[in-house]
Amino acid sequence: MLSLRGVRKSYGGTPALRPVDLDLVAGELVVLTGPSGSGKSTLLMIAGGWETPDGGEIVPRPPLPEVPVDRMSWRDLGFVPQSISLFEELTLADNLALARGGPGGAELLEALELGHLAARRPGEVSRGEQQRAAVARALVAAPSLVIADEPTSHQDHRRARLVLDLLRAAAVRGAAVLIASHDAAVVSRADREIRLDAPAVAPG
Ligand SMILES: Nc1ncnc2c1ncn2[C@@H]1O[C@H](COP(=O)(O)OP(=O)(O)OP(=O)(O)O)[C@@H](O)[C@H]1O
């Protein structure tokens, strides 16, 4: 689905992500773990096209189109950034409609216990509800690839399970799913774990 080869990133000369190889395949739920600061978010931002690597290659494979990841639509790639990043001026329903390219997604909002909040804007719901709406937005167009950064970090146990059930369902229908998480519940439900070590701090 997507191959990353030797992808790396530094900020101001300080490594944020050591060169990483990663292959994502259809139907598999992969969890990315590692200590705080090891580069999980950096890797996900690069894989999702929200950040540019300093080096390495990102190769999309069918059913993804042969375009750079930052040009993919929500139908190809659903992304849940750590920052959540919903459009503040749109309701939750309209955030989903924008990703889907038309109305829909009511059943996803219901499944995430957000149905009664569909007409509210992100600023009018809790952080956990915003995060679940971001999960719904990532899944609403049934993308081939789903990337989610700590998608249960603001959830209670029960809601975390709802989120995980939907991410697992995406993998069952054939999506490749990559999740960064510290949550043992996420790790226990993954098909594969990829662990990042903290990069050595550059001398001087
Ligand atoms: N925009 C940035 N400018 C400078 N340094 C950054 C920037 N983004 C991340 N870093 C640094 O890069 C390293 C990796 O950060 P990243 O957020 O990818 O780690 P992480 O494994 O996701 O951490 P956490 O588990 O705490 O979310 C950290 O040392 C961080 O301080």
From TrEMBL:
UniProt signal peptide: none
Entries under Gene3D superfamilies matching the protein: P-loop containing nucleotide triphosphate hydrolases
Pfam families, alphabetized: ABC_tran
Parts forming coiled coils: none
Boundaries of every ABC transporter domain copy: 2-204
Molecular function GO labels: ATP binding
Protein name (database record): ATP-binding cassette domain-containing protein
Species this chain originates from: Amycolatopsis thermalba
